[in-house]
Amino acid sequence: MYVFGMGESHNIDELLYSETHYADPYPLWERMRHEAPVFYDKRLNAWLLTRYEDCVDAFSNHTDFSNQLYSKTLGVVFGPTMLDKDGHEHVVQRRIVAPEFVGKRFEPYYEAIDRNARNLIDNFPNSGVVDLVNAFTTRLPVNVIVDMLGMDQSDHDRFHQWYTTMMAGLSVKDLLESQFSSEKQNLGVLAHQELSEYVAPIIEDRKSCPVNDLISKIVHAEAEGQKLTLTEIQAFISLLLVAGGETTDKGIANMWTQLLLNPDQLDAVLDDHELFDAAFSEMMRHSPPVPGQLRYSINEVTFSGVTIPA
Length: 310
Fold this sequence. Notes:
This protein is mainly alpha-helical.
């Protein structure tokens, strides 16, 4: 028997967009896994998969699902990115940029992470309350990305403004209400344009005079004889700032939230810093910064006995 705190008398439709669900989504997600693992959300006009096995099958199914839906969300603000590409085109663009973010190629950026983290902590007040989100988590990834790109560090605040404005332009609330041409979205588009204008001369300079920064590496990287165009590099930088910034920002904040809600585990991590990796991994399982991903069904497909149309 399952006991759900939200009560059986409420429809799933009603609960999905309730303040109660936003505050604590786990009871409804558990109920959906058992009652409606493949649920049609009329408001979103989308099918929601909540069982692990179904999600794994969907993500590994490149025949019946497409990434093209991202062209109507991220693409509206940034223009085309590798996220809205399918098949070989996606693989090629990923091969161009992905090597710079894994293994030994990423190690040179450790110093920038450490230095920026320490700089932010040094600015904490000596006493009183510190808002970890405003003072640290939302700042750290943007500052590090600015360093990685080889940008002027005095422009940290400018990049942070572009980051927050573009994120607001991708508001799911606007998308749900069919208002994806809202003022926030228009400001997001403008922020991307400003950022693109800022980096354009730097990109052109790095083509002839590369240095040891991420822009130089992306400008000269290629896969199967292909390189990214100027527009694609500009879109990638906006994507890196938003997607990389948002996930890191929320990931750190969610980890600290869970540790603060569980003081015994916080004490264990503070006593043994080797446990931080495990704490972060558990956050990614329990309360990840991105709770779901979009896919567009291009063929009829069945999960848990429910058929999703093309």
